[in-house]
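During the reporting period the student researcher (J.K.) took over the structure-prediction task from the postdoctoral fellow and processed the backlog of single-chain submissions. One of the processed entries is reproduced below for the supervisory committee.
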Amino acid sequence: MSRHPLHLALVAALVSPAVLAQDAPAQQAPRTLDTLIVTGTRISDRTVAESQSPIDILTPEILTSTGTVELATALSRALPSLNFPRPAINDGTDAVRPAQIRGLSPDHVLVLVNGKRYHSGALVNVNGSQGRSSSPVDLNTIPISAIERVEVLRDGASAQYGSDAIAGVVNIVLKGRADSGGLALRYGQTSAGDGEQYQLTTDIGFAVGEGFIHLSAQAGHQDQTDRARPYIGTPSATSAPLGRVVQRQGDPEVDHGSVTYNTELDITDYLTFYSTGIYTKRDVLSNGFFRPAGDARNIPEIYPDGFLPQINNVSTDHHFSAGLRSYTAGGTNIDFSYTYGSNELTFDIKNTLNRSLGPTSPTQFHAGALEVKQHVLNLDLNKPLDWGLAYPITLSYGAEWRGDDFKQSAGEPLSYANGGVLAPGQSTPIPGSQVFPGFKDTDGGNFDRNALSFYAGLEGDLTEKLSLGLAARYEDFSDFGDTATGKVSARYAFTDAVALRGTVSTGFRAPSLQQQYFQSTATNFIGGVPYDIVTFRVNHPAALALGAEPLQAEESTNYSLGLVLQPVDNLYVTLDAYRIEIDDRITLSENLTSDAVRDYLNANGFPGVGGGRYFTNAIDTTTNGVDLVGTYNWALPGSTLDLTLGYNYSKTKIDRVSGNPASLEAIDPDAVRFGRVELGRFEVGAPKDKFLLGAIWTVGGFEVSAAATRYGEFSVLNANPALDQTFGAEWTLDLAFSYAVDKWKFTLGGDNVFNAYPDEVIFANSTSGQLPYSGSSPFGFNGAFVYANAAYRW
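J.K. obtained the following structure tokens:
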């Protein structure tokens, strides 16, 4: 385990890394400060340096230099404010891992593709990971090979874009050139000898009349990693074999493929047709908890040595957008578009059984599927207004209709059936496929809603020094009502070297259909007796009896104040402080499984149900933090050195926990709907800070890059306070060596080259020594990873 921060910092300063590109990624494009941005503004000539809000621009070179094939992982290594842990043994969350910005919920980030809303994933995270309760976008469904750049707006933007944009906006701009293309092959594996990866990517652009079409494709495979250890607890008939490794803890096995297109065609001098499409399929195999041979959940006739059940998730995504854009000098510019997106996530359980079916039980089941669909119609207009000021003021306004659908499909009947066969020593059968019982026919359903919004904004330079922006939005949802948001932003340049910027805004996030209507049943043991614990949809009669109420929108107030410094040529420094207050955050309640709750449910039409949980607007939070970013392009004799530095500090505090509703109090006065384990995920579960130091040194065709990252401490709380644990800060170092000749570029690199691992969990939390690492670790627990790339571009 590496614990040498001074050593790392010295190496970073000497060989100089750079994977960071906040506000101005000088290492790949010295003129990035002049890059025109399309996120957070509707002024056509606004640049990064002139932005009233903090904007990060990440190029494909930066993303690929992070040594990963996953977009979310690449962003986490390039953005100090983004946290992307790698949970394991968390059912579908292993396949669709959530990312956080500024320590907020993963679904507090709006994701756009070419400025159009991208669909969320179908999964709702209900297990013990960071991002529990959320149903966010799966960033890894968007292939890096198709990306021209990523614009990350670190500011509340609900008034500009609508629901979800509380923590910020990630806008992924696809490649759109007719005169370029490339082919790349990548191979790598961990220093432990597992996690083998290989990937092939290609993209090519063609001229089509007065326009272009750019095509991209990528396909690859990733083997599992495993850091589990032998069972070292007390031997018994129901324990894992002593001294043998039977459990797995690590990344899943993944097969993935994507194809995309991006096109623009000029129909006339003033009218342009545009369209984008993305298709991605990911086949993911992850692991559950081992069932020992003598466990009541096993059937020795089928698995005489016990079994490790596995979940096979297949995630299929479609994204399509098409529109017409009209530009007229000095007149009203019009953009009319339609966007469709969908995600289907299937659950197939392998190497398993249904204990209640006895020795004739199948060993694999289709356990059901989740699917979301999104339709968006958008009419966006803007017009320059000449008010006699230094520059025209841009008036923007428009309307948007959005339709959402959520479908939960039941598994095959045997995946949830109660066959009536008792396990030895049990008085009640244990139904359902082990590790993940199938969705019951009573769980399934189709649900939809729609929303209509109207928005308007004014933005412009009032003087040579002062720019100002105003935005307002009204949105009406068919399922929970309406809401209105607003935003004021400003930037004042004292000199060319010093500017102050700030924003005040209100925001919201509508409850997802998954949070409102997802329902599942799992068998839990309480006092050695199996009970069905149900995640009830909020309008289910049992949920209402336990205090569930219709979900409301989360509402936020965001404050941001930033300092922009350009004291010398090629040096750019920003310091942005922020405060984000969120009311009525949506969380999943604790398992309500007391005797009083069970007795009530069993006596009121829910026999065999041992307890339940549901989503609720349970808490208010305040998040305070600061982002520091610096870039410097240093011209040396015969070479260049591009330096970057980034730091984020973020702290979330829970201000209010709602009390128990009267109906729940009447059933169980001692019930706890929001316990300390979940409280810990919000307040201390993500690193409190993160520091990046990087640079790239280029001489001739040679390039040396490195990135030193310090991940701050985080904590995992337990229902028993004696088992709480705080995990210390850790440093990692990434290195890469490249050589470019003609149109070829060859790279040999290593991530986490000092083989750093997070602190191990205490024995009491390690499942008798088998699971040594926390799934909340911000850089995972795979150790060092070595890779090689060969790329050809024209």
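The committee noted the following: Residues 5-15 form the longest helix (11 residues).
J.K. will present the remaining backlog at the next meeting.
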